[in-house]
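INSTRUCTION: Work out how this chain folds

Token vocabulary: learned, describes local backbone geometry

RECORD BEGINS BELOW THIS LINE
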Amino acid sequence: MRVLILTGPTASGKTALALELAHQLNGEIINADSMQLYRHLPVLTACPTVQEKKEIPHHLYEILGDHDLSSAGWWVSQAVHYIDQLLERGRVPILVGGTGLYLRSLTSGISPIPEIPSSIREEARRLAQAPSFHEIVFAFDPMVRGKLKENDRQRLSRAWEVKMATGRSIIEWQQEKSQALPYEFQKIALVPARSWLHNRINARFDLMMSQGALEEVQALKARPLRPDSPLLRAVGVKELSDYLNGQTTLEQAIELAKIATRQYAKRQLTWLRGQAQDYEVRHVGA
């Protein structure tokens, strides 16, 4: 059962290649980007356009609201649902995105943590608003101290809810042998030339601005977001918010957002070099 994975840093051309492959292979596209799961920032997170979605069916794009939290385990369960559905229809699933944790969880298997009751998840979200939430979690589950960052409320929430629901540390669950999925993965990684990628990042952000990225952030700021909303971590949100708050000029905000995007791409490439050694590497922009 063939499943295609296409990854690479932001702005490396994944979307265009995915569309091309989908036409060639009778495929459909499944999102593997943690930010593109969310509504409200389709321009800033470079979601596929309406026309691209009409051209080829896309799945798991813009499905979560601003108060929803995702996790690698949740994403794998959703991805598997669509993979199996597409295979049953004789289509080739093409997973596209740059969230390495999601892809590694899918291909290597994920720890068998039981489903967490919604009441416990909501309690974790409520507790996560406390400034000292990290100390609450570290006291409740000492095994995660030193393994989770104090400001990573999403992973801290996950650790708390797992311990509360199962009585076991998330570290213990992660140490259990993962169950491999019954797919034949074909993995492709786009590795762009540095200057080519930087030029694309800069040009793409200018295009995003002309397509309404600033207005997206302005509308997002008007929403009653939870402090740990993943949307606040989308590249460009902080920089454009600083401009809207009068802390920088628009030109400065745009340049800082481009820098942040280039830094994000560098982190993605670092992950590829360390974790995606069994991928077929395709050099682009040379």
